[in-house]
């Protein structure tokens, strides 16, 4: 919890200091009221009361009460402002940090948990900073000021009050010890509810088609019930606080009056008895104020465990050092070749290698096809080139240099990677195609206009080559047509074509297509490859596909099986020599095509 405060900026510390100053003022004014009360009581008891004296003291009391209220509002405002500003900064920090994560860290945290951490956990922290922190500052001030004012009277009362405070503190400490772990668990269970909710929403079509509503409902109910029962237990523990406070307040009042009776009995004169009685009235007012302060601790300790857990969960993200650290080389020296040297890779947390002892070399300008059965390690191999993961053994070289040496941004700038599952972002067709591009989207200067026209032309060209024109021209607004979240308003094949257009738009030196043509019909696949061949002439192209037709014209084909390369050569050579390739070919090609190839 304390550690997260290190993320506070100067502006937030200033607001915090202002809030603390207002709290001090508020408490001081609040605790001044009994002094005037004491003066009035004394006037009445000693018979020295005058109307003007009473009115003046009454006015002072009113002024103190009004001032305390204004100070309380000001401290509430400044602390709310501080909390909102801190949570905005923390959300940004989380966002930036997550952007540096490799797939390994993403897998470790899980998307559902990262979302809960950057929303729910930040809100918990914000609530605490806005209200809890203020009280946390106020309670010691109110307690020490009240104790100071009370101690000038009779030590017996102060001792009884201090003892009560210590006892309450012990109960609070015990509650934190037992409630805190449950609140930590509550956050994890919220992740689980979030996961179930997400799965239910993203998999809606499959759930309906498989009549799996009951199954999903049961899963959600389980997660929801777990959260509820854990929360019930945690809150039941915290419910002990008000009863403890009530008991302590009653016990303290009884103690003050008993001590008062004892002191009055021991007094030597009537005047002293009146003085003790006045002191007792004032003292019990202070004691009540102080216990009110302490009962607000209940709210703090209700919030603190959750805020502390949330801080830990946020810090877990902020303190994670991404395993993939950027290198320093910002420019490729040699041609855009790709080489794997005895590369093996194991996913974190698994015991077996996903790919093993892979070696091959692709020269600049070559097109290489990679084929193999499901789970043979094709995507894994592809992920290693843009350094989405780091190799476990061996080396991956781009332009003759280990990928680890490159600045990550520079390495990825050289290549366009089209993942197996097409990803589209909320925006327009144009924003998706030019995604990550730095072209001006408008402007008055001649230069900007020229660049804008060039950008539009590149978008149009990428759409044309990726065979997307046919459906984009039918969309409302064409390139300006909206794309909904996750690309839900376009078909699977259209999504693939738009993500290929995105790769073309960048005009990179290296193209990486991971089964990016799988949802296209044969005709579109053929047309797209023909266009791409012209477009990518001179570039290095890697195409993963499970279709022989897609890769058979490649300069070289790698055949993968169970994480290893089991064949390397042209379509013709492999048809003659590679058993795994032959098996795939027999199931996909007609006898004529087979005869033509062989
Ligand atoms: N994130 C991951 N964590 C753990 N294991 C993984 C992960 N991703 C893939 N694997 C495993 O690695 C192996 C290779 O998977 P990979 O995705 O590379 O296969 P693929 O050849 O691309 O298959 P497909 O043709 O189905 O796309 C599989 O056994 C798979 O279970
Ligand atoms: Mg794959």
Please characterize this protein's 3D structure.
The chain is of the alpha/beta class and 598 residues long. The protein has 2 domains: 2-318, Up-down Bundle (ABC transporter transmembrane region fold); 338-597, Rossmann fold. It contains 20 helices and 12 strands. The longest helix has 54 residues, at 213-266. It is elongated, with a radius of gyration of 36 Å. Bound molecules: adenosine-5'-triphosphate and magnesium ion.
Key terms:
single chain, 598 residues, alpha/beta, ABC transporter transmembrane region fold, Rossmann fold, 2 domains, four-stranded antiparallel beta sheet, 20 helices, 12 strands, 10% strand, binds adenosine-5'-triphosphate
Biggest sheet details: 6 strands, mixed
**Which second-level CATH architecture of the largest domain applies?**
Up-down Bundle
Termini, distance in Å?
70 Å
Shape: elongated
Q: What small molecules are bound in this structure?
A: adenosine-5'-triphosphate, magnesium ion
The strand line-up of the biggest sheet is 6-9-10-3-11-12
Uncertain runs: 438-445
- The helix fraction, in percent, is 55-70%
Count the DSSP helices: 20
Which band does the percent of strand residues land in? 5-15%
Structural class: alpha/beta
The CATH fourth-level homologous superfamily of the largest domain: ABC transporter type 1, transmembrane domain
Total count of domains: 2
Say how many strands there are.
12
**CATH topology title of the largest domain:** ABC transporter transmembrane region fold
Computed CA radius of gyration, to the nearest angstrom: 36 Å
Q: What do the pLDDT scores average to?
A: 84
| CATH C-level class of the largest domain | Mainly Alpha
């Amino acid at each position: 919890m304390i550690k997260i405060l290190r993320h506070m900026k100067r502006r937030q510390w200033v607001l915090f200091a202002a809030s603390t100053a207002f709290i001090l003022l508020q408490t001081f004014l609040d605790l001044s009221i009994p002094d005037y009360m004491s003066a009035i009581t004394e006037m009445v008891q000693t018979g020295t009361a005058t109307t003007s004296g009473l009115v003046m003291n009454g006015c002072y009391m009113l002024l103190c009460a009004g001032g305390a209220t204004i100070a309380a509002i000001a401290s509430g405002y400044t602390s709310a402002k501080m909390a909102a500003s801190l949570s905005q900064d923390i959300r940004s920090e989380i966002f930036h940090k997550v952007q540096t994560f490799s797939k390994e860290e993403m897998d470790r945290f899980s998307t559902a948990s990262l979302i809960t951490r950057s929303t729910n956990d930040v809100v918990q922290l914000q609530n605490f900073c806005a209200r809890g922190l203020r009280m946390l500052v106020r309670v010691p001030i109110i307690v020490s000021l009240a104790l100071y004012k009370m101690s000038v009277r009779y030590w017996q009362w102060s001792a009884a009050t201090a003892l009560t405070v210590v006892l309450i503190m012990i109960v609070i400490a015990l509650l934190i010890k037992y409630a805190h772990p449950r609140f930590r668990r509550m956050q994890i269970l919220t992740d689980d509810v979030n996961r179930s909710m997400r799965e239910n929403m993203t998999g809606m079509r499959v759930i309906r088609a498989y009549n799996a509503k009951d199954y999903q409902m049961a899963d959600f109910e389980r997660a929801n019930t777990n959260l509820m029962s854990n929360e019930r237990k945690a809150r039941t523990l915290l419910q002990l606080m008000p009863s403890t406070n009530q008991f302590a307040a009653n016990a303290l009042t009884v103690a003050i009056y008993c001590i008062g009776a004892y002191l009055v009995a021991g007094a030597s004169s009537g005047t002293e008895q009146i003085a003790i009685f006045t002191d007792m009235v004032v003292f019990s007012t202070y004691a009540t104020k102080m216990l009110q302060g302490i009962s607000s601790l209940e709210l703090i300790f209700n919030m603190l465990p959750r805020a502390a857990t949330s801080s830990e969960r946020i810090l877990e993200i902020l303190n994670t050092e991404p395993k993939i650290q950027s290198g320093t080389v910002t420019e490729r020296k040699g041609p855009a070749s790709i080489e794997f040297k005895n590369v093996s890779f194991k996913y974190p947390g698994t015991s077996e290698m996903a790919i093993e002892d892979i070696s091959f070399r692709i020269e600049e300008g070559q097109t290489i096809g990679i084929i193999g059965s499901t789970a043979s390690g094709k995507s894994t191999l592809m992920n290693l080139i843009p350094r989405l993961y780091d190799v476990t053994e061996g080396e991956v070289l781009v332009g003759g240099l280990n990928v680890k040496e490159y600045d990550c941004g520079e390495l990825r700038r050289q290549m366009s990677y089209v993942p197996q599952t097409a990803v589209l972002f909320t925006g327009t067709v144009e924003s998706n195609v030019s995604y990550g591009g730095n072209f001006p989207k408008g402007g008055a200067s001649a230069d900007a206009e020229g660049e804008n026209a060039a950008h539009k032309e590149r978008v149009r060209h990428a759409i044309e080559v990726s065979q997307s024109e046919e459906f984009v021209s039918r969309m409302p607004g064409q390139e300006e047509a909206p794309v909904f979240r996750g690309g839900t308003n376009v078909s699977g094949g259209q999504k693939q074509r738009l993500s290929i257009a995105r790769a073309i738009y960048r005009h990179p030196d290296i193209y990486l297509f991971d089964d990016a043509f799988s949802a296209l019909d044969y005709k579109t696949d053929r047309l797209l490859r023909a266009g791409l061949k012209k477009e990518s002439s001179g570039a290095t192209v890697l195409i993963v596909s499970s279709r022989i037709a897609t890769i058979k014209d490649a300069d070289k084909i790698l055949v993968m099986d169970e994480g290893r390369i089991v064949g390397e050569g042209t379509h013709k050579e492999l048809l003659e020599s590679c058993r795994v390739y032959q098996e795939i070919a027999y199931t996909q090609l007609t006898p004529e095509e087979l005869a033509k190839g062989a």
